[in-house]
Amino acid sequence: MYLLLFFPLLVLPALSVLHEERRSIPSSYARSLDPPAPDTPLPSPLRFFLQQSNVHLGPSALLNVSSPSSPFFRKHWTKKQVDAFFAPEPKRAEAVERWLASQGIPQGKIRRSRSGGSVDVHGLSVSEAQSLLNTSYSVYTHQERGTTHLGCTEYHLPEEVAEHVDFVYPTLQFDGHAHKQGVTIPLSARESAMRISGQEPKEKKRGKVGLGVPGSGSLPKQGEQLSTDQLNGGISVCGEFIVPECLQELYNYPAPNLSAPSYPSEHLGIVEYTPQSYLPNDLEMFFGYYLSPGVGERPTLYSIDGGYPQDEYLGFEYQGESSLDLEYAMALSWPEIPMLYQVGDLSGSASFGNFLNALDGSYCGENDPSVDETFPNSYWPYPEDCGTVPQATVISTSYNYNEFDLPVSYMERQCHEYLKLGLEGITVVFSSGDYGVGGNMGMCMDDTTGAMFTPSFPSTCPWVLSVGATQIPYGTTTPFTTPEVACEDVIVSGGGFSNVFSRPGYQDDQVAGWSDNYGPVGLGYDYNTDSMRGYPDISANGAGYVVAADGEFLLLYGTSASAPVIASMLAKINSELASQGNAPIGFINSVIYANPDRVHDIISGSNPGCGTKGFSTTPGWDPVTGMGTLNFEKLLEFYMALG
């Protein structure tokens, strides 16, 4: 007689694989010994970002349309073509949804993002998320501010799901702003006056502190205040400070046609992040000296997620960036009036993802809420803008992060978006940073492998044009017979090598040549060279710009100046090309690296930081000033000859 034993049927979990892990946490955070309560709600939906299609083909596609030797040169794609080429296959979302359903997640909690780029699960607790991801969440406390962050150091996915997912949020991401709830807005000049007069302004609080908030690190640096009797010297002042005429002389750039009527530009867009903003009176002051027909003119405003030129918070720390960008962009572009993309409300929390949403609706849903603002919020009670603004053919941004502040997956997704914009014929320009080989505010990195230089993102993305800074040697007179040098006055040109992005093919010859012939040794810090993206690509003057900001004339310093100058020159070329019925430049890096005769090489100066001498300039490309500074006439001649 046999004894029959009956066992309950066990449903074995699918085989899980490690999907992502973090080897260390930011040094500013400490892990709490007490785990979060199991019923603690996640701070946001659990989002499964889906693998896009044809990502591996994107670089070759972009190089095909940006290389003069290619039969597809400047045959840019339409947005519809780009979206269709990279859209995730439906099977990816379906695989994630099937797995979630098999784990008992109610259908009502599962939604696809508007763009179709992610599958989102709403209303989960910590214990439910831990079970799904085979992980353990912890509470991390910022050691200076006492604010808390929920995250984990690794997570797992079933094999049949992992192949469809780029990354999951919230998991390994730490706050890229390095600030959380409860940060007090500094008093504006107006509020200070109220307090002195006995009125008590209502204290305001920000959430995450974003790119435009004073102290973020990427804003320009202030020099001396100028009196009005110093402003009438024309080009004779160029040995002391920079005015628009100096840039015309330096870069063979044409003077504006002051008799031509103004009109809106399709070619130059300047990005600003609230609370950075311009004041109309500052434009009037500047144009009164340097662009008389510009008096009364304003940039064409495109508001994104509640952005507007605020005048509630005043002072250099609020008006310096926008005044610098717009005064010189308008002076160099006249009679064309550039677009102003003003991003984010007075929460000061908007970031690059919010701007990209408004530029490209298909990017909506790709944000990382640890870096980008979520809308609606208490300041802006409307959904985020998705595909709501026109695309300028050249877009200039003078803001940046340190690479190590951001999740790798976030940077990779965003860099791919810049590649897509390049395919559409858009030149994306970013400043390279003001702290040499160090990061914003001179921060340097201690990795598990030792001390490392701190690269700047998005400049390290291979699909943007990264712009460093030069300066005129003090006391130089015109005509300029002494070449510019790397900027080391007040700011130091940002440059080096990415820790995330591989070196693109268009850089191979120049960067390999630098590494073989000039690569420094014995700096005491680690840095990547042989196989990683080097930056900047190009440079322009970044020292001592005369700017009207909050009612005063000041000298400003930074790659914040270099980027809009380069962007203005490229937009002018696009305007000339358009007048002949020709396509815009688009992604220009390939042309810059292959045509060194179109630039002025910079061979003097360095970019010290992290307690080291940094890198030195050399003949050809170097990680201080890139390929050098543009010769506008020669570059225009090159493109006009191509048609």
Automatic annotation (TrEMBL):
Residues 1-16 form the signal peptide. One of its GO terms (molecular function) is serine-type endopeptidase activity. Ca(2+) binds at D601, I602, G620, D622. Gene3D superfamilies: Peptidase S8/S53 domain (3.40.50.200). The keyword Metal-binding applies. Its main location: secreted. Secreted tripeptidyl-peptidase which degrades proteins at acidic pHs and is involved in virulence. This is tripeptidyl-peptidase II. The lineage of its organism: Eukaryota, Fungi, Dikarya, Basidiomycota, Agaricomycotina.
